[in-house]
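Why predict the complex rather than its parts? Because the way molecules touch one another can change local conformation, and only a joint prediction can capture that. The input here totals 397 residues.
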Amino acid sequence: MSKSNKDVAADARVGLGAIFISFAKIGAVLFGGGYAMLPLLEREVVNRRKWCRFEEMADFYAMAQLIPGVIAVNTSMLIGHRLRGAAGTLAATAGVIFAPVLVILAYAAAFDRMADNKFLLSAMAGLRPAVAGMMAGVAFTMFNRSRKTRLGLVVSLCVVLLVLVCRFSAVAVIIASLAAGTIRYAYTLFKLRKNHEHLS
Amino acid sequence: MSILAKLAWVFFKIGLLTVGGGLAMIPIIQYEMTRLGWLDNQQFLDILGIAEMTPGAMSVNTATFVGYRVGSIAQPGSIWMAVAGALIGSVAVCAPSLICVNVFGAFWQRNQGHPWLSSVFEILRPLVTGLVITAATLLVIEALWGGNASALLAKPYAPDLLPTALVLSAFILTAFTRLSPVYVLLGGAAFGLLAGL
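Output of the joint prediction:
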């Protein structure tokens, strides 16, 4: 599992096979929906492969929410696209759905014999709290990163208030923040121009 | 229209209509499946439960499962048709995002570092933090109190010992060590198995 230094070189062309394998590994342990994907992605794509920085990965993840479809698959596609363009999106998608498709195929072939399996049920009873605790750990780490700037602290707390307490949809909040970011940009442009007028 | 073409079209449509993730897909999938008679409501609930217990996104899992069944309707007794159906369903549900990412991704790469995008992402980053805090809170409530937040608020009660211990240890291992999340999840499943014996 160790990797040689030459793979880490920023300009090295990433192999499609490597993209497929990395996302296949993530897909095989992707329990608990799209959000649970972040720590897996961080470990594989940021820490091990060094394909992008954590902030970049978080940006892809934010973008994935705006694209139609499954968030986990969208995030994989965006990272695949960043690495190898259209071919990268295909490799990442094939990878991330590989194990789930095999598992469901096995289930479909065996149909309802597995659903009441005692061992499966008790393993799931342990898996669910582990997913929840892992997510809490990720939330803790991300909040520690975000609260360093005042904007980050305010935005992250507001989102919790809006989505968790007021039950706003995540999509609505994301669209609102796109608008807020655009207004903020327009405001800086406006201020710049005004300063310019003062000077001349 | 052949039933496999219809399968591809239905899941393409489902993939296209879903914005904001798998949970938003559930009512759309349910409507389409019952309308076409591919799944009844009970079967739909079963597949939701299975999708949750197996790795992968709920909607892709549903697409794989329904595709398998539709494939075996198309040619009864043929396992290959069933597998082909499963693959068609899974690919079709991902296809709209694939198209969007290739269009959107090109735009993103041309404009990376543009002050407008930086300004937007300075807000989007903490926003994702907020969404993750929200999801984590809901998942912890689900794991410890069966997701019944309103009953919990009305009359707080202590959760069971095992799930509490698992949530806490998973939290500590993720937040304060560099242990791979895979081992955290496998460990949780292993403790669940032991407790069930």
